[in-house]
Structures are given as C-alpha cells and as structure tokens.
Structure prediction request, 154 residues.
Amino acid sequence: FQAEDGIRDLVRSRGLGDVYKRQVDDVIGYLVGCLQNEETAGKTFDIGGPEVMTYYDLVEAFAAEMESQHISAPLPFFMPGVLAKWVGAMTPVSAGLAEALLKGIHHDVVCQENRIRELIPFELTPCRKAIRRALEEREQRLEEEQQASPHLQM
Prediction:
C-alpha cells in the first residue's frame, strides 16, 4: 500500500509542492476499506485529501487556525537547517521534523491517480478540520499534563 500526500497541479504549481493534506483517520479508513474490498487485493493506490494545497497554503491555514499573527516574506536563499531551528524555537514543531519537511519542500508530493476513491468512497477530512482537530488534541494533552503535574505549573 503506497500513500502519497497530493496531486500536482501543473497550472498552479509554485515550486513549493502542491499537497493534498490527508488526515490519519482517512488513511485508516482506506486501510480498513482495502481489507474489506477484494478488488484492492495485490494493487497499490495513491491516497490524498479533498483539496490541493501548496506548502505555503498549508502554513497559512495552520496560522489561521491557531489565530496567530505572522509575517510572510520571500527569502533570496533557502537554508533548511537555519529555518528549522527558528521553527523549532517559535512553534510546537520540533526542529528535526521541521528540517525534514523543509528539505522536501521543493518536491511535489503527488497522487498519480484516484481509483481508490471509487473503490472505497467516504467523506475525506478537509485540511482546516484536520488542523483544528490536531490543535484541540494538543490542547487537551497539555491540560492533562498540567493536571497530572500541578507542581510544574507557574
């Protein structure tokens, strides 16, 4: 089973990589669907979310969902290591994960076909909803950690 994150939009591609943002529950839905559908046996499928997004669009959506003020500016150079350290210091994303993502930013992550949607139809999770869900889960986890360790609260 091969999972891909997106479909390349040749008309709108901005060199950042067009991404179908997929949500983990959707991936599990496809995996379970493949186990239940004999037509999928021995085949590979690309899976993606319901919308095409660039990495820039994804960052903008994340910032909007966090209700975060941010500045966006083009850079004349690209240094993933330096940017990753900044991301690690300014966001809940680790510098290691940020660097891995940044190193792949120039590569389109594409679905070559969508046969899986006909074989296993279900409503896919939109990107903003997936981001909201992740932020809500993070907030809940932080609250649980604070309740479990009241001596660490300030």
Summary: The chain is about 45% helix and 5% strand. The CA atoms of residues 105 and 119 lie 31 Å apart. The mean pLDDT is 78.
